[in-house]
């Protein structure tokens, strides 16, 4: 067995991993104890990485050869790399020759390596001469970029993870850190145990697991963040909690901000934000004083923030408003203090470093600055870099939908799932004359729209670097060779560039390190100067933070400790940006505020995590969560279907009552795209997952869309005919079957398809309709799920529109087990048949009663319960039973938690479930039913 040191491909924490491999197979993964970001820890997603790289997964999900479509809608056919790249060069050159270089565009990804990102940036802006290149980081981090540049002068998070160990107060805004950055949240838990006086404030409309852990939860109304920050500053000024000496010595523009917040009185802010005045006062005091209670004591406050601030039509104002608080109180540039933006993707920071956004150039240069354009042109040896602003992500797809952009190149991202306003995105993908998808996985929604598919390498196969949230550059290394004909992303770009402009000298690179060295030179003298860094130093000394200038031995953990900022006069700028309302506030026609967010065990569009049934154990199926009072008012029971409709589209989903959601609000996880949740609309159009609902309204400063919020209405769905199918399948065809089932989802007004299982792989297919499905459609379902065999048990009543079938598996000495079941027209038996199948319980006693209508079990079968601990497969029912057996002498919550972990071992492996365990221990289970 070989160990290869690399980096996790999921969130921006940037955890180090040790990849275990044998030959060309990845066989295991564990946390790297020497990596400073995680010190050996991994979350539930990271711990299962090796399972997503298993050969049977790759055979069913990976794009292994170049493929081309002869016509839209046709099945793609295998081609050679030479033919594929020649075709791409002809089509792009044709569009450029006829319509100019701005007729093409590139949409890339924060999951690319820095070397890949640099190559794409140089291809578009240097070789082709268009700034039409943007990244899915526009959807998650561009407001943070704009906020940092507006106030501090550069896109550079000034804090580091170690600051958690020094903070007296941690202020989390717009982030469910427990789910989105679990390993960092473990570090926060450690810091709180070591320093019990630390205070945690969480500002979030939902009572998430992060909010549940807080000393003070501020359940503000969606979109009111800027007003909250202005109100806190008003209180700090009133109480004398600002640092006037710091303001005078190191900042500019405070007078304008002071005038702006004068009217943000506690009463006004409390009413608008839906908060209590005394909570505002407490938050202001803790923030300003680092929870010491005394501004002169110099307590430290660290703020952590993410998509709740960024994904907003006023994202720049929200980011700047929070940074204003740090500048006004001197909470920056010292241990434990600073505004710390958490990146969502593994290399969103690296993409920002190389100018991967349409308005940036290499090394944090601004495209609008003629001097910056000249510097990059000189570095690349070209006459000039185009000055016309490039199209941001939403603008790029709007231009393609309008017919302005003729050719699109998409790499390592899935816009047919992740972009807002999916109707426009799909029109863009259909209208563009030529769409290239450079991707590792053939199963994403976007793959169905591509004219040319180019197989790329992915985690465990790539070599290069990434940068995490704390500006730490880590090496990514290949443990196994690429499967099939997959090529590295940077290599595809270089090969395409050489065909596009034969003989041009812009792409001489033969290794990722050659690209990285050129990127390194571009940083010389810049705020992110890494001229003292090399692959050799990273290999020898491990991950390093920037800046690390030539001659330095190590990078800087914190920035601005000297009070000098990268602005013309060295002073930070207060940003007096007013509070703006949501792009579409609630109103009588759309009375609910829909927010979106993450699930604990899933990642983005689930192209990778969605291949593992065990990662669906915690949240098994898509749903919309509502407040229990709203459920009662709408006369809804848990699991009943509802229409969730915005101004752009509609979805049908099961409704769930949740204690985490406030009245007049709704929540849907961002991951549920058309790969897992679908159906057809009233006009016959296919439904496109959660982003069919979201708006493309965007922040004028950052061009980041308001993915976090949409105004919706929720109405009970009248779909009386229901269907449920569950089946264990051979692992070598389960994921291929899932892909085939997706094609059937559009046959129903509502359908979902998700995997389940740990040691085995199963699929769950659920649907509903106004009338019974045609028998031929049910036949197709039975065939895909292996229910078409002669030994399968069957019952059908065409008059009632019902069908039931079941397949049993005989086991040596252990009786029969239910292996597959389909219930059509009457699904009430799910309550006992589903645990019978999923928990692999004996089925000998049932016989043909497996086909009985109705929900009453012939033999009592208690459901196992919802999985809480993914690593060790511990359910909530087992946890509650264990807590009930505990002695009353264990009154302390920490003692009860310790005893629970001793007995069931839940939360002792990756720790991602620990926040939920604490909630259960306290008897405050706010999770959906």
List keywords for this structure.
MopterinOxRdtase_cofactor_BS; 4 iron, 4 sulfur cluster binding; molybdopterin cofactor binding; alpha/beta; Rossmann fold; seven-stranded mixed sheet; seven-stranded antiparallel sheet; metal-binding; 929 residues; Dimethylsulfoxide Reductase, domain 2; 30 helices
List the SSEs and their pairings.
Layout lengths: L1 E6 L8 E7 L2 E7 L17 H4 L2 H7 L5 E2 L8 E2 L2 H19 L4 E5 L5 H15 L4 E3 L6 H10 L17 E5 L3 H4 L1 H13 L4 E5 L5 H4 L3 E3 L6 H15 L4 H7 E2 L1 H8 L4 H8 L3 H13 L11 E5 L1 H4 L4 H15 L8 E4 L6 H6 L6 E2 L3 E2 L3 H11 L12 H10 L4 E5 L3 H4 L3 H10 L2 E6 L12 E4 L8 E4 L4 E5 L12 H12 L11 H11 L12 H7 L2 E2 L26 E2 L18 E6 L26 E3 L1 H6 L7 E5 L4 E8 L7 E5 L7 E2 L30 E8 L4 E9 L4 H12 L4 E7 L4 E9 L5 H10 L8 E5 L4 E10 L3 E10 L5 H9 L28 E3 L4 E2 H10 L7 H12 L9 H8 L8
Parallel strand pairs: 6-7, 6-16, 8-9, 8-12, 9-10, 11-22, 12-13, 16-17, 17-18, 23-27, 24-26
Antiparallel strand pairs: 1-2, 2-3, 4-5, 4-18, 14-15, 19-20, 20-21, 23-29, 24-27, 25-26, 25-29, 28-31, 30-32, 30-35, 31-32, 33-34, 34-35, 36-37
Structure write-up:
The structure is a single chain. Among the domains are: 87-138 and 348-528, 3-Layer(aba) Sandwich (Rossmann fold); 142-341, Dimethylsulfoxide Reductase, domain 2 (3-Layer(aba) Sandwich); 719-852, no CATH class; 867-921, Arc Repressor Mutant, subunit A. The chain starts with a strand and ends in an 8-residue tail after the last helix. It has 30 helices and 37 strands. With 929 residues, the protein is α/β, with parallel strands linked by helices. 31% of the residues lie in helices and 19% in strands. The strands form nine sheets. The chain has a seven-stranded mixed sheet with strand order 5-4-18-17-16-6-7, sandwiched between helices. A seven-stranded antiparallel sheet has the order 28-31-32-30-35-34-33. It has a six-stranded mixed barrel with strand order 23-27-24-26-25-29.
């Amino acid at each position: 067995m070989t160990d290869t040191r690399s980096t996790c491909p999921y969130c921006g924490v940037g955890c180090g991993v040790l990849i275990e491999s044998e030959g060309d197979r990845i066989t295991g993964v564990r946390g790297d104890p020497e990596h400073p970001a995680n010190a050996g820890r991994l979350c539930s997603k990271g711990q299962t990485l090796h399972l997503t790289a298993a050969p049977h997964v790759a055979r069913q999900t990976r794009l292994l050869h170049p493929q081309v479509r002869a016509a839209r809608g046709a099945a793609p056919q295998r081609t050679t790399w030479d033919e594929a790249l020649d075709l791409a060069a002809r089509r792009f050159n044709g569009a450029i020759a006829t319509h100019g270089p701005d007729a093409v565009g590139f949409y890339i990804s924060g999951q690319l390596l820095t070397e890949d990102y640099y190559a794409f940036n140089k291809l578009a802006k240097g070789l082709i001469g268009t700034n039409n290149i943007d990244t899915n980081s526009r959807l998650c981090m561009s407001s943070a970029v704009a906020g940092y540049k507006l106030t501090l002068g550069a896109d550079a998070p000034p804090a580091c993870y170690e600051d958690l160990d020094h903070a007296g107060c941690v202020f989390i805004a717009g982030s469910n850190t427990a789910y989105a950055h679990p390993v960092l949240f473990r570090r926060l838990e450690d810091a709180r145990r070591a320093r019990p006086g630390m205070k945690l404030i969480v500002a979030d409309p939902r009572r998430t697991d992060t909010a549940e852990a807080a000393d003070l939860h501020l359940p503000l109304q969606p979109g009111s963040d800027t007003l909250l920050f202005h109100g806190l500053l008003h209180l700090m000024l009133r109480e004398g909690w600002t640092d006037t000496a710091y303001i005078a010595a190191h900042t500019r523009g405070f007078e304008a901000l002071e005038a702006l917040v004068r009217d943000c009185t506690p009463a006004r802010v409390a009413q608008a934000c839906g908060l209590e005045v005394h909570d505002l006062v407490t938050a202001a005091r803790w923030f300003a004083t680092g929870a010491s209670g005394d501004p002169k004591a110099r307590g430290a406050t660290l703020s952590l923030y993410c998509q709740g601030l960024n994904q907003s039509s006023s994202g720049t104002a929200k980011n700047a408003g929070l940074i204003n608080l740090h500048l006004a109180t001197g909470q920056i540039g010292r241990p434990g203090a600073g505004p710390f933006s958490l990146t969502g993707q593994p290399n969103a920071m690296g993409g920002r470093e190389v100018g991967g956004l349409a308005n940036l150039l290499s090394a944090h240069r601004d495209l609008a600055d003629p001097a910056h354009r000249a510097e990059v042109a000189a570095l690349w040896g070209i006459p000039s870099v185009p000055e016309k602003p490039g199209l941001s992500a939403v603008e790029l797809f709007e231009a393609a939908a309008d017919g302005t952009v003729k050719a699109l190149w998409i790499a390592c991202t899935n816009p047919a799932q992740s972009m807002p306003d999916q109707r426009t995105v799909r029109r863009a993908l259909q209208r563009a004359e030529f769409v290239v998808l450079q991707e590792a996985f053939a199963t994403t929604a976007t793959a169905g729209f591509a004219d040319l598919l180019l197989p790329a390498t992915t985690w465990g196969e790539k070599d290069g670097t990434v940068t995490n949230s704390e500006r730490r550059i880590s090496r990514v290394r290949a443990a196994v060779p690429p499967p099939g004909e997959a090529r590295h992303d940077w290599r595809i770009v270089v090969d395409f560039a050489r065909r596009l402009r034969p003989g041009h000298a812009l792409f001489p690179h033969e290794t990722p390190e050659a690209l990285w060295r050129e990127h390194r030179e571009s940083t010389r003298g810049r705020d992110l100067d890494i001229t003292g860094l090399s692959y050799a130093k990273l290999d020898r000394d491990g991950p390093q933070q920037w800046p690390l200038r030539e001659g330095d031995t190590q990078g800087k953990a914190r920035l601005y400790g000297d009070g000098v900022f990268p602005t013309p006069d060295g002073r930070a700028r207060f940003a007096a940006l007013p509070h703006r309302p949501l792009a579409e506030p609630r109103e009588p026609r759309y009375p609910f505020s829909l927010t979106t967010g993450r699930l604990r065990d899933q990642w983005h569009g689930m192209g990778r995590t969605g291949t593992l049934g065990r990662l669906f154990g915690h949240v098994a199926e898509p749903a919309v969560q509502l407040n229990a009072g709203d459920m009662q008012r709408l006369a809804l029971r848990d699991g009943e279907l509802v229409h969730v409709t915005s101004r752009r589209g509609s979805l049908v989903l099961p409704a769930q009552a949740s204690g985490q959601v406030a009245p007049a609000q709704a929540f849907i996880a961002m991951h549920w795209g058309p790969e897992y949740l679908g159906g057809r609309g009233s006009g016959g159009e296919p439904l496109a997952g959660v982003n069919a609902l979201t708006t493309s309204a965007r922040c004028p400063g950052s061009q980041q869309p308001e993915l976090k919020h949409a105004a919706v209405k929720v109405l009970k769905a009248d779909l009386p005919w229901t269907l449920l199918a569950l089946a264990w399948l051979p692992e070598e065809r389960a994921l291929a079957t899932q892909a085939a089932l997706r094609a059937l989802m559009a046959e129903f007004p509502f359908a979902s398809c998700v995997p389940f299982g740990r040691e085995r792989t199963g699929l769950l297919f659920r649907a509903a309709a106004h009338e019974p499905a045609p028998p031929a459609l049910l036949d197709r379902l039975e065939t895909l799920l292996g229910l078409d065999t002669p030994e399968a048990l069957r019952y059908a009543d065409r008059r009632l529109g019902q069908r039931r079938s079941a397949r049993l598996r005989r086991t040596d000495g252990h009786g029969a087990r239910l292996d597959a079941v389909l219930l059509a027209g009457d699904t009430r038996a799910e309550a006992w048949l589903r645990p019978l199948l999923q928990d692999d319980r004996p089925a000998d006693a049932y016989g043909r009663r497996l086909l009985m209508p109705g929900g009453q079990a012939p033999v009592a079968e208690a459901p196992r319960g919802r999985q809480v601990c993914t690593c060790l497969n511990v359910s909530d029912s087992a946890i509650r039973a264990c807590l009930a057996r505990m002695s009353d002498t264990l009154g302390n919550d920490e003692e009860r938690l310790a005893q629970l972990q001793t007995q069931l071992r839940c939360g002792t492996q990756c720790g991602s479930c620990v926040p939920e365990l604490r909630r259960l221990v306290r008897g405050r289970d706010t999770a959906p039913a």
